[in-house]
């Protein structure tokens, strides 16, 4: 693959991922496969993909400043600390995973994230209806586990966090969304920092995709209201299924 084709592939994937994340999520369905097609080793591709999509979490968190300001400072500190620890643990687990083992896990992880994306609205609705009142004791260990998953593989993270808060009694959707964005930002930053210190980031592709993802996120946010959410979700799910099938086919 020549340099121009490679740049076009990665730039387009970053732009489309930023737009998708701004509208409905699922950007990692595009960034990770593009980096693998570009010839990056699986662990490096996953780490670079995590860095490429991470700037979007900051904007999402800032958009919910008012909701976060209403929460007890002690709760915010506890949950961000758990997210930070989980993000580092997940990143370390990824670094300890043999490259060929992770390559074999990729189609299963993509399929799992696609299923989460497909079932997300139904799952959230069911959990809101069945969620317990108050703050159950298992929320903190659950948050740590979800954060570790996010540090290991980012796909479907937001849906898992929303499901966790819904199931554990958080009735205010905006509060749950604010906490989801904040914890995603924290665990993403810590996991990416771990990858940087371990030297597994491909900086050229990462910087290119970060730049195009930022532009894509801006364009996606401006046009989000013009698009049918059902059609967008269909595109994301089909993309996830196609990518999963391709990686199963390639073995």
TrEMBL record:
UniProt keyword annotation of Transmembrane present: yes
Keywords: Cell membrane, Membrane, Transmembrane, Transmembrane helix, Transport
Topology class, membrane: Multi-pass membrane protein
UniProt cross-references to InterPro entries, sorted A to Z: TM_pro_TauE-like, TSUP
Transmembrane spans: 32-59, 80-99, 105-123, 143-165, 185-210, 231-249
UniProt keyword annotation of Oxidoreductase present: no
Top-level taxon of the source organism: Bacteria
GO cellular component entries: plasma membrane
Localization per record: Cell membrane
Pfam families linked to this entry: TauE
Family indicated by similarity: Belongs to the 4-toluene sulfonate uptake permease (TSUP) (TC 2.A.102) family.
Protein name (database record): Probable membrane transporter protein
Organism: Serpentinimonas raichei
């Amino acid at each position: 693959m020549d340099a121009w084709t490679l740049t076009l592939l990665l730039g387009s994937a970053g732009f489309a991922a930023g737009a998708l994340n701004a509208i409905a999520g699922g950007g990692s369905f595009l960034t990770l496969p593009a980096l693998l097609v570009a010839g990056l080793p699986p662990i490096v591709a996953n780490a670079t993909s995590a860095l490429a999509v991470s700037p979007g979490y900051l904007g999402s968190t800032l958009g919910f400043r008012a909701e976060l300001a209403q929460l007890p400072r002690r709760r915010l500190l506890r949950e961000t600390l758990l997210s930070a620890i989980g993000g580092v643990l997940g990143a370390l687990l990824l670094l300890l995973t043999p490259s060929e083992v992770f390559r074999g896990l990729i189609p299963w992880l993509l399929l799992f994230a696609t299923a989460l994306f497909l079932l997300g609205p139904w799952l959230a609705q069911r959990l809101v209806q069945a969620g317990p009142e108050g703050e159950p004791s298992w929320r903190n260990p659950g948050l740590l586990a979800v954060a570790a998953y996010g540090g290991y593989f980012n796909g479907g993270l937001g849906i898992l966090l929303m499901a966790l808060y819904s199931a554990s009694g958080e009735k205010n959707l905006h509060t749950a969304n604010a906490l989801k964005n904040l914890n995603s930002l924290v665990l993403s930053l810590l996991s990416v920092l771990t990858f940087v210190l371990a030297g597994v980031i491909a900086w050229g592709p990462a910087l290119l995709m970060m730049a195009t993802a930022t532009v894509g996120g801006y364009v996606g946010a401006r046009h989000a209201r013009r698009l049918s959410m059902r059609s967008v979700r269909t595109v994301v799910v089909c993309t996830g299924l196609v990518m999963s099938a391709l990686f199963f086919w390639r073995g």
